[in-house]
Amino acid sequence: MTDVLPRNRDIACGAAITALGVWLSVEATAIPPGPGHTLIGPDFFPHLIGGGLTLSGLVILGQGLRRGWRSAEAAQKVHLGAFLRMVAVLLAYVLLYQPLGFIVATALVVPAGARVFGSARPLRDGLVGIGVAVAAWFLFTRLIGLELPAGWLLQVVLPGGG
C-alpha cells in the first residue's frame, strides 16, 4: 500500500504539470509580438516555461507509470529545514532586489541558494553567482530591452543607471 501512494501521486502530479505546461504554451501563442522584437519577443519566456513544465510533467508522469519511487519513505521525506532556509533566501532576494539592484541581489542569492542545497564551495558559488547575475542582466536589459533595478553599485559603475 505504501508503494502505491507515491506512484499515484506521481501520475496525478505529472499529468497536472503536463497539462499546465501545454496550457501555458497554447496561451502564449496569443501574445502579440512587441515592436522591434525580432529574435526574442514577449512570448519567448511563456513558451520556454510552458515547454519546461510540459517536459518536467512528462518525466514525472513517466516515472509514476513505470514504477513509482523506489522507496516510499524517500519520496515522503520532507527536508523542512532546507525548505525554510530557501524561503528565507528568496525573501531576502525580494527585500534586497530594489535597494541593491538586480546584479548585486542575484549575485548574493545564487551562492546562498547553493549553500542551502549543500554546496561547500563558496568561492566557486560566488563566481557563478556573479556570472549568472551579469549574464542575466545583459540578456534582459540589452537583448530583450527590459529595465531592471540598477541599485547603488551599478549606478556608481555606470552613471545614469546603465
Question: Could you describe the 3D structure shown?
Answer:
Helix 1 runs antiparallel to helix 2 (44-66) and helix 5 crosses helix 6. The chain has helices spanning 4-28, 44-66, 72-76, 80-100, 102-116, 122-144, 151-157. It has 7 helices and no strands. It is mainly α and 162 residues long.
Would you kindly provide a brief summary of this structure?
With about 160 residues, this protein is mainly alpha-helical. The chain has 7 helices and no strands.
Reading the helices and strands in chain order gives HHHHHHH
Q: What would you call the structural class? A: mainly alpha
Residue share in helix: over 70%
Mean pLDDT: 82
Please tell me what the overall shape is.
flat
Distance between the termini: 59 Å
Number of helices: 7
Cα Rg? 20 Å
Beta content comes to: under 5%
Uncertain spans: none
Number of strands: 0
The main sheet comes to: none
Blueprint (SSEs and pairs):
Blueprint: H1 4-28, H2 44-66, H3 72-76, H4 80-100, H5 102-116, H6 122-144, H7 151-157
Keywords:
single chain, 162 residues, mainly alpha, 7 helices
